[in-house]
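Thread: "does anyone have the structure for this chain?"

Original post by V.I.:
We have the sequence but no experimental structure in hand. Need at least a predicted one for the grant figures.
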Amino acid sequence: MKILKRHSYIIIILLFSYNTVKSQNDADSLNLSEIKTSLNEQIQELEDSIKVLDHLIALRKQKEFKLSSRKISLKARIKVGGRIQSEPRTGAEEIYKAGFDQLDSVMIIGYSNMYFKVCQIDGVCGYVFGSSIEKNERIRKYEKICFDRELALNSAGDDSKKMEQAEAKYYSQLSQFISVLDAEKEMKIKNDSIELIEYNLLKKKKIDIENIAVSEINSADGVSLVIKWGFFNPKKVIKYIRFYVVPYNAVGDIVRSDIGGKSNSVLEITGPIYPNKKYDYSYWENVWYNNTVQCIKLKSVEVIYMDGSSYFYVKELPKILSANFNNDCSY
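Reply from O.Q.:
Generated one for you, tokens below.
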């Protein structure tokens, strides 16, 4: 009986010990499960962060690729004493230093850390500190876009969402900026083409007179005139050109000068006059003295060239008048 009782006690003690160990194991298992769950959550967060970074990298590469064929190219000049260096940082190796008697021309092709990346005509490229560049409106706009980007990225720290927002804003602004530059370049090409076509037409006309008008009537009733005209014949040089003109009043009648009584007048220019791609303005003072002069009619033009040849435009006068030239002084 005592032995049975002793065995009973032993069994009870064993059962108690088993239950205690089992409870500890269950607790340990529970802790390990919690740790595993926490680790899985952290792993998921890391994977999500990696996905965001991968997306950001892909987005940046995509936008960089799109912009790669539309590179920045801004003409600029380095200020006197400015220098080109190897890297965009203080103390970097000096590659080139601008002289003290002129501004050196460069092409801006990038921006980093408050430095413009530039290239010279001879192919020397490097970085110039922002304050050493002569800036126009376009350069200041480009500088602000780049500076704002760098400031936003620094403020973002490790926040991938803010980094993505900063990059997205930068590429959007840069794309718009380049689009404006491209549009301006296209417009310049178009205008240059139009000017070339017009100039080729003017070369065929040789002379073109765009306007003749009263420029001033002074206090003594002296009438001054101005003629806008151009000489475009590349094969000739003008020795003399004479414009034969008549004044009219506001009701379409020819008037005479109060001094001398003349109506017809010859306006002469002495050469040599070389061909040009632009129009010139020629002025004459006190051609007549009459304050009623309102309109000037061009009657003819005489041209004498340095080679001895000449031409008198009378019936053919319309050939050398611009399309918008009004040579009618009638009321």
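V.I.: this helps a lot. The first strand starts at residue 74 and ends at 78.
O.Q.: and The two ends are 152 Å apart (CA to CA).
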